[in-house]
Amino acid sequence: MAASIPHFSLLRNYAATTARAFVTVKVKPSYTISSTTLLHLPSRSRRLQFYASASNNEEAAARAAAANADSGAPTIFDKIIAKEIPSSIVYEDEKVLAFRDIDPQAPVHVLVIPKFRDGLTQLGKAEARHGEILGQLLYAAKIVAEKEGILDGFRVVINNGSDACQSVYHLHLHVLGGRQMKWPPG
Ligand code: AMP
Q: What Å distances lie between residue 52 and 42, 65, 105, CA to CA?
């Protein structure tokens, strides 16, 4: 295999006490892989390549979103709150709306948002006066976890700013569960 992909260095480490072999493929950062080459790579390498590509897209999208973060412009979530575009609502009360993420990262992936943004484009904009709604959002996350049957294990995530890949500037909590979560997160 090494002969057919000369631009990759293959390190094979054979565990001394077991028959299992571990193969690590180092990819040169600037090297572009053709789809034909990709087909000959081990599946883990393909996953790494797709992951690198996906995360680059997310980072670019996050940087673009951050450029308009403080414009006060409505976001896609305003349309969801106004029911101008459809969403799959899991929980709703006077102050909070929870709906399924359109691009789920776990079997359960629900977004919890304040109906009135009130300057909370991101958690980093929180002021003391936001204490009540922040508590309500967190409590709503627990209600969502209960309704979804994941109370025994779920994760609540807030991406704040472009370094954290925030893409929508209306504060939202991600409630994730239904599978084993890993730590540290990516
Ligand atoms: P973040 O990247 O933390 O700002 O999260 C924004 C989330 O909003 C992403 O997980 C998107 O998949 C999700 N999202 C964007 N548009 C919609 C939509 N129309 N309905 C549901 N979720 C959405």
A: 16, 20, 16
Q: Are residues 82 and 139 in the same domain?
A: yes
- Give the closest residue to 122 by CA, choosing from 69, 64, 185: 69
Pairing assessment for the beta strands 173-177 and 154-157 based on DSSP bridges: antiparallel
pLDDT confidence tier of residue 34, bands split at 50, 70 and 90: very low
Sheet containing 96-100: give its strands across: 89-92, 96-100, 108-114, 173-177, 154-157
pLDDT digits 0-9 by tens, 104-140:
999 999 999 999 999 999 999 999 999 999 999 999 9
- The beta strands (E) that lie in 77-162 are given as 89-92, 96-100, 108-114, 154-157
- Catalytic residue flag (residue 172): yes
Asked if 6 and 92 sit in the same domain, the reply is no
* Identified catalytic residue from 7, 130, 170, 172: 172
C-beta of 166 in contact with ligand 1 (< 6 A)? yes
Together in a domain, 43 and 112: no
Mean predicted lDDT score pLDDT of the chain? 80
- What's the 102 CA to ligand 1 centre distance in angstroms? 6
Both 123 and 45 in one domain: the answer is no
Kindly state the tokens that stand for 40. 């000959």
Q: Are residues 47 and 120 in the same domain?
A: no
